[in-house]
Design a protein that fits this description.
This protein is α/β, with parallel strands linked by helices. It has 14 helices and 18 strands. The longest helix is centred in the middle third of the chain and has 16 residues. The chain is globular.
Length: 430
Amino acid sequence: MPLFKFNPAVYSLVNAGNGRIFEDAGWTLSDPESNSPALVRAQYSETLFTPRTDLRGLYRYSGWMPVKRTLRGSAAPVTYKSKGLAKHLGLNNLYITFSGWAPKIGAKMKTCSFKETEAYSVCARIDKHEKRTLIVQSAGNTARAFAQVCSDNDIPVVICIPEDNRHDLWFHHKLNRCVKVVAVPHGCDYYDAITLGEKLASDPSFFLEGGAKNIARRDGMGTTLLSCVEKTGRIPDAYFQAVGSGTGAIAAWENAERLAADGRFGENHMKVFVSQNTPFTLIYDSWKAGSRELVELAPELGRRRSEVILAKVLSNRKPPYSIAGGLFDVLTKSGGDVFLAGNDDIVYWLLQFRNLEGYDLLPAAAVAVSSLAQAVKEGRVAKDDCIMLNCTGGGILASMGRGYTLKEPDLVLSPELPAEEIVARVKAIL
């Protein structure tokens, strides 16, 4: 428990579609008066970016996070000016923001993924007297982050994942019994895990984390940009990240807008460049078609493509792309674009990055490196541009050297089961 009184940030909510301002009821995920789908954003009373010197880890940025308290064990993203990769690509102002395990550069996220930024923010938004059980749906890295944070801080959670991704549930110590994992069977994907969680949430003793709709998730992820700007003193000219849902890119853009309003870090001319792992190219295909609506992707085809890609966390069939304030709007407003990287590209840049920067990346982060290399080759960025490369995870090789244990699912349930049966079977293991 903290030895001081934590003063939460004061904020209101804003409908990204129509600009309506209203108050947060505690776990508001959407505007109850909106006639069309729209993200809601936090509008903080503190308009100046002021990292807190009295707090460590992620909560240094709590002035722009909708949290009620602080939790044990958080770490912040680390930003540094690249030498090796920058020289290799011919860039003079490349800054890498890394969220993972690489103690030699000060990066100490135990689960090796920037999903910790989400988990420490979302879980700190939960009232400490909450009686319901949190539901988190994940393709892998989010599951590991929430499981670790909830275990360390005694927060009851049910995590829904695809059984095929259970290898992502590795931990250095056995988890607290407050963490339960429910998997959808072999051959199912992240969208099926989402469906399972939604059926479970039909019971009032559970509540959904909310995904991209949760302001705490986005503002936690947005700390990656805050880390970069704290280092560089300015809003980047270009931002690169691999995406499954695109939530992290949305979060970065929202914080770029806040920083521009601050006035000390320049105007927001940041181009948002995102990338996907072929052949799972739903966002790429939709963007290149010039469509706000997602192009059609048959469920079975989506599942097969998610099985093929190395960066399995990038296989979201239900991304917040079309919704007001979502990824389509961010790409449009920023003048950004979407790139692709194949499995061979991932392997190439995993090896190159380790040689050039001295630590290993997760496959999704290698997709982002590949997209940056493509942008340089195509002249989409200039050598003197201030560029932020969001490397969203890595350090597993070093981390696993400390020993680990796997968390097996407590249940395996078909997402096609009736909601009542899913609720009854999950309650039986709590």
